[in-house]
Amino acid sequence: MKVKGIKKHNCSNINFYSICLLLLLVSYNLTAQKYENKWVISFGINAVDLFPTGTKESAQYEPQGKLFEDFFNISDHWNFGGPSFSISRLIFSGFSIGAEMSLNNIKKINGHDNIDYPYYAGNIYLKKIFNSNKRLRPFIKLGYGISGIDRGLFGGGGLMFSQYFSETIDQGLGIQIALSKNLGFEISSSLNIATEKTGINHFKHQFGLYFGLGRNDRDNDGIINRKDKCPDASGTLELFGCPDSDGDGIIDIEDACPNEFGTIENNGCIISNNTNIDSGIISDTISSVSSKTEITEKNTEQDVQENNSKIKEDQSSELVIYFPASKSIILGKKAYDMLLEIRNFLDSNLEKYVVIEGHSSSDGNKEFNQFLSEKRAESVKDYLINIGIPANRIKTKGYGSDKPLFVENSFENRILNRRVEVRFE
């Protein structure tokens, strides 16, 4: 082995690989991270390998192997030592930033074992962990820092401290093996590319334990604590992380009747015994309304059940889905059952298409009500498309508050006007 004059490395390929890795880190975002620690601390040992780095003959140590050549030749090339230590902070959806440092002694370079050079490395990095709610959690990372193999201060080569350190770009991958929510093993390998003529390209392999501190999503609902209005109760994104047990669009902590479908005006409770609201569908469903028969409170429960049982195969038949105040989300099992019946009817009657008309109550300003009525119609259309109805068989129209079914002189009537009417042509 001989130590040649120090030359500047060729980094043209290095920059390309770094840019690709950075793009992958930024572009890939796992949206369902159910559990992540805010802080992660890890420590262990490392192994430094100078051989399979694709180093040219003009570099300091030669001949070295091609990139990844003889990668697992542990006995001839891997220098085991330590410690390695890192600390990182979760920023969002599996992405974390951190810092790490490593110490070692280089005793083997291309099979030679008659040397003893201290090794130092430290960097900051961006890491993306995938499947952070699983036991096996692969990750990739991109770092920037410094590294050096001390051939001067302690190695006897007569070099000054600044002459054996170099800025480095670190590109790596690894895997975490979770033993619990806060403890596990971490294994990684990184290619450390020196960007200055004083540096040496090398691989660094790390093995150790990690400890997680803090929970970024305490209720495991996929919404991080700082954006979760109910961080200790699992909820939905539409309701800002809060649960809604009765499906009335009013979160449980603001619902006076959390187990009964109710209205905002009545603090989440049923207004009267005469208006039957069940799981997002007011059971006074319009059916066979060619004569536009007005719904009244005289409808018996038996009549309601008969009306809801199926879609009449009448061209003018019409169905109604009701919505919570100021919302366009479809709520309740009966609503989804009705949409499945609509799909089945259209599958059996290929000559027909469906018309979806959105409406709102008069609460709020006219522009918002128009927007809300269109969003309600679109939400029904989107669901029908998702369950197999071609978009060209669906028409939508929003009427705002211009076509109320009832004069809004009571809470009950406002509820009945927040609707989507579905008919066939």
Describe it for me?
The protein has 425 residues and is α+β, with helices and mostly antiparallel strands. It folds into 2 domains: 2-215, Porin (Beta Barrel), CATH 2.40.160.20; 281-424, 60s Ribosomal Protein L30, Chain: A. The N and C termini lie far apart (86 Å). The longest helix is centred in the last third of the chain and has 21 residues, at 366-386. The chain contains 6 helices and 16 strands. The relative contact order is 0.09. 17% of the residues lie in helices and 32% in strands. Strands 2-4-5-6-7-8-9-10 form an 8-stranded antiparallel β-barrel. A 4-stranded mixed β-sheet has the order 13-16-14-15. Strands 1-3 form a two-stranded antiparallel ribbon. The protein is elongated and about 95 Å long.
Based on helices, strands and strand pairing, what is the structural class?
alpha+beta
- CATH topology call of the largest domain: Porin
Strand content: 25-35%
Q: Name the helicity range.
A: 10-25%
Instruction: Say how many strands there are.
Output: 16
Radius of gyration: 33 Å
Order of helices and strands: EHEEHEEEEEEEEEHEHEHEHE
Count of helical regions: 6
Order of neighbouring strands in the sheet with most strands: 2-4-5-6-7-8-9-10
CATH architecture type of the largest domain? Beta Barrel
Number of domains: 2
CATH top level class name of the largest domain: Mainly Beta
The termini sit apart by 86 Å
Poorly predicted segments: 1-17, 23-35, 272-317
**What is the typical, i.e. mean, pLDDT?**
76
Shape: elongated
Mind summarizing the main beta sheet?
8 strands, antiparallel, barrel
